[in-house]
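Same chain as my last thread, 304 residues:
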Amino acid sequence: MEFQQRGLGVRRRVRAVAGVVSGGLLAMSLATVSGCTTETAADERPGGTARESPVAVLHRAADVLVRSGSARVRTTMETATGGTRVSIRGGGAYDFEKRLGRLRLLLPRDAMGAAEHAPITELLASGALFMRNRGAGIPRDKWVRVDTTDIPDGNLVTGGATDPLTAAELLRGVRRASLVGEEGLDGDLVRHYRGITDIGRAARAASEGARGSLVAAARGFDENTVTFDAYLDGLGRLREVRHRFTVSSRTDGQEATAGPDAAGRRGAVGVASTTELYDFGAPAVVELPKPTDIYTGKVGSPQK
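reply #2:
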């Protein structure tokens, strides 16, 4: 699969962000903030038990989601560069036990070189991403399959939305975290945590279904540390998580590639991926495509 990044200019930057959804590859670099480990004060408060550190609470967030079964999902991926913001929004449902999800993504206006672009449907599975209505000459009734263990970012941003369970699995790598406070979220009291997680550490601690993608991300990112804000309810369920990445992108029109020498040769683009979970227990019906429904030709990025 061919992944390409656009060059300079607002229009090209917008197309580059849409290229994330349509197969554009982004190489990751460092985005850090300071944090400190604190302890919870009372067992009746949301997100943890008495005297548990925020780190311990966040490390088990993915396990709590699996026990929760399923939920509805809202996603937002924002890119900011040169004063220009571009957002890709999505919605759907996810089955945490089966590790299957379905999202419908809305691309920014004119992001694909046209006034409007049909929403992209994504199916999320362990180690795989399926996309329909991707464009670039692919038949509308065909799906494109991406092996998320074989792309340098492990599909943390490539698909335009972070897999909800992978977003939680990233918290297994939390090194430092602090409790910001208690807040209201969709009518519920939640605890707001902020800190730094390590992708490599998360990969080593990840469940079997997430390990391959996170291992790929740990190898492909320029730096492994990522800042986050996470909100957990009284049952310890992750209700919202926002990861902030700094993406290195070529600004000379050449293809972006991952690697240890990449950061010095590319400009920095801020990418924030937000996953919101609600209506736990809602059914998440996901049927993966049959082999005959998967496009087998060459996939390229849209041209100007």
